[in-house]
Design the sequence.
């Protein structure tokens, strides 16, 4: 830390007499570096009542490895939702280290908010934590109280998307910073299962688009210097650059390019995946 010593201070009073004050007090003149993801200088987007968000950060697991930075990921995305995307506080559900029952209740709460809305709703789901393919290949989100061995109580990702698809649901946007290959951000979490299951991408509702951190059997890596998952870091960076006004398609293209380049430079392979029945060119976040 840079400091300056206040050695002499000369003050002059009305009589023209000089006085010298001495002090050894240290004064902090350091310049704190502002994070490139900081939103303090960003304009807050007006509230859009039709938008509802469910944000889940699962970092600390009871029966498997933890997921570094997942809580940072979710907290940052929550702030971006309220500042850049226009989600009202009472339309936002934020879960930290969520259990299976907590996630199920939150999904039902989203449905209740959808039913209360007078307008067609736009639902945003963000998840950072462990993901895994079931024995039949279905993409499962792993609550913190669920074992990766038997997956009892795991949450079917595509089932959630279908639950959000009510009569007046205009758009469902899903962002998943997890992989489904059995790899965590640090090491394999299902070695004891004895088999490898290839994830399967089944049918989504036509009004739903999913952007996941990695493809098929790839790993979702942490960006340790930034204290985020790499996918989330590039997602937030692009949202800030576009001030929340990006199309889903352009958002994915930028994430895919930056994430792929970053992973190759670090001797890894990670390529985000977009899943949609209709394409995502006309949809905006």
Sequence:
């Amino acid at each position: 830390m840079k400091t300056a010593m206040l050695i002499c201070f000369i003050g002059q009073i009305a009589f023209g007499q000089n006085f010298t004050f001495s002090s050894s007090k240290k004064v902090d003149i350091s310049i704190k570096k502002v994070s490139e993801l900081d939103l303090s200088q960003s304009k807050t987007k007006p509230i859009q009542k039709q938008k509802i968000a469910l944000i889940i950060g699962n970092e600390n697991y009871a029966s498997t490895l933890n997921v570094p930075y997942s809580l940072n990921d979710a907290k940052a995305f929550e702030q971006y939702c309220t500042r850049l995307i226009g989600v009202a506080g009472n339309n936002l559900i934020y879960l930290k280290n969520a259990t299976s029952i907590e996630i199920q209740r939150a999904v039902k709460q989203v449905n209740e908010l959808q039913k209360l809305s007078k307008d067609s709703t736009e639902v945003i789901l963000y998840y950072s934590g462990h993901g895994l393919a079931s024995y039949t290949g279905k993409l499962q989100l792993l609550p913190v109280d669920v074992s990766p061995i038997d997956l009892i109580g795991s949450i079917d990702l595509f089932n959630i998307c279908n639950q959000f698809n009510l009569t007046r649901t205009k758009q469902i946007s899903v962002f998943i910073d997890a992989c489904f290959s059995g790899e965590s951000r640090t090491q394999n979490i299902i070695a004891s299962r004895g088999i490898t299951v290839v994830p399967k991408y089944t049918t989504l509702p036509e009004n739903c688009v999913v952007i996941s951190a990695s493809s098929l059997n790839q790993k979702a890596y942490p960006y340790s210097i930034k204290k985020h998952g790499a996918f989330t870091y590039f997602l937030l960076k692009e949202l800030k650059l576009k001030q929340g006004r990006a199309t889903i398609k352009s958002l994915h293209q930028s994430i895919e390019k930056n994430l792929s380049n970053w992973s190759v430079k670090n001797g890894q392979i990670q390529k985000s995946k977009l899943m949609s029945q209709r394409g995502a060119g006309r949809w905006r976040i």
User: Anything to note?
Assistant: The first helix runs from residue 70 to 85. The radius of gyration is 23 Å.
